[in-house]
Amino acid sequence: MIRSCCLAGLAILAGLSSATAQRSTITRDAFRSRADSLVFTYLAESHAPSASFAVIRGSDTLAYGAHGLANVDVWRAPTATTIYEIGSITKQFTSAAIMKLVEQGRVKLDDDLSKYVPQFPLQGKKVSIRQLLNHTSGIHSYTSSPGWAKTWNDELSPDAIVKFVAADTFDFAPGTAYRYNNTGYVLLGMVIEKASGRKYANFLDAQFFKPLGLRQSSYCRSKTSDPAFALGYSKGPSGPVRAPFLDLSHPFSAGALCSTVGDFAKWQRALDAGMVVSPASYTLMSTADSLNSGRKINYGFGLVPGMFNGHKTVSHTGGINGFATAATYVADDSLSVVVFTNFDGESPQTLAQNLLRVAYGVAPVGRGTAAAQAVAPSLSTADRDAIVGNYTLQLPGGQPLPIKFFLDGIRLMAQAQGQPANEMRYLGNYAFGVAFDPELRFTFTVDAGKATKVVLLQGGARVDGPRVP
């Protein structure tokens, strides 16, 4: 089974915004006991081996620690300085690198990709650097390619990675729709290498990691016995098992970085303080961008803008073989919330959201529960069982994307091939939403007690998915 290997990047879209922004005033002692309780609950319910966490407000460290096991086999406990693979949180480092090159005059946001990566076939289309940054290029994501998983053990060049989809029809015309896309960020890494004349990893080390003192952040090693690193796990039939191996040449600039929660909190603050890129560049990164039509999308450049309790936030999550991460930053209170786990079976998104809520005196929510939602309609056992099964989404470019709907205890989950599992929230009339994207909808057609197809609505696009017999 393909597990959550593929660099998912979903936002912590916490609700309860208000016209008057409430400041975070909770004391360190009051917060820490509640944070520990939330982390222990997450570990118990998800069966994740460990979680490392940092919640820092200004100069006040509200919570900073780790619980569980970084290595299950030898019962090695993690610390706040344990290093985790961070998956798609990597994308903000890549977008910052592009913006650094823009500031240096070596790249322009409206430049065509062919200027830097002429070997990638654009099929007569124009794809700008901006469209790669905000996931509106229409280029197909290689992590959805059926043949990709067969090569996980192989070390591949960026050219070999993007070749998986080089001949694929575009999912849509560039700039006309939004679809989260890992190929685009691999191509951005190739742009960085071409424009800077340096390897991606070396460029980040010289421009960001060393100047900012991020001593435990780097391009991940594919294999390591260093006890400073957590080992990655997936969900097994009777508990966590070692995650399938993925050579870390594959995620490249879309998701191959490693870090600690402390380093990442320092990175968030440096971004906001103008120490990474200029304030103008960071505004572009952290502001919702637009399609050609002017319609807003819920993504900037490697960051997801949002609101919580009247405050602007920037967030991202990550998922890669054996690891899942979630982080958000509230500039008004210089508040960092960072959670890293060595488990790809369940995102720590709700845990991070709850740490944020408690920091503002708001009650935490249950697993997969959207904030402040009304009482949800009930889903009968018969209707739930009618939906469970395998389907194939027919993407606009003609590519099939397998997706399964399954039960995790009593929770109904959705998992597309190469993506993490997410709990679905029943909305009535066989329609479901998910916590990370309030506009996404799965709607099922049920005939004679069995669902025959699912329709996915996301980003203005409709995708049909017949049931696989």
Question: How would you describe this protein?
Answer:
- This protein is an alpha+beta fold and 469 residues long.
- It has 2 domains: 1-372, 3-Layer(aba) Sandwich (Beta-lactamase); 381-466, Lipocalin, CATH 2.40.128.
- The protein has 11 helices and 20 strands.
- β9 (304-308) and β10 form a beta hairpin.
- α1 (28-46) runs antiparallel to α10 (349-359) and α2 (90-103) packs parallel to α5.
- The two termini are 18 Å apart.
- Mean pLDDT is 89; it is low at 1-19 and 369-376.
Labels describing this entry:
26% strand, disordered N terminus, seven-stranded antiparallel β-sheet, alpha+beta, Beta-lactamase, 2 domains, 11 helices, 20 strands, Lipocalin, 469 residues, eight-stranded antiparallel β-sheet
The helix content is 10-25%
Q: How many domains, as an integer?
A: 2
For the record, the CATH class of the largest domain is Alpha Beta
Strand content: 25-35%
| Overall mean pLDDT | 89
Span of the ends, CA to CA: 18 Å
Level-2 CATH architecture of the largest domain:
3-Layer(aba) Sandwich
- The structure class reads alpha+beta
Report the radius of gyration as a whole number of Å: 21 Å
Major sheet, described briefly?
8 strands, antiparallel
Tell me, briefly, the overall form.
globular
What is the β-strand count? 20
- According to CATH, the fold-level topology of the largest domain is Beta-lactamase
CATH superfamily of the largest domain: DD-peptidase/beta-lactamase superfamily
Tally the helices: what do you get?
Answer: 11
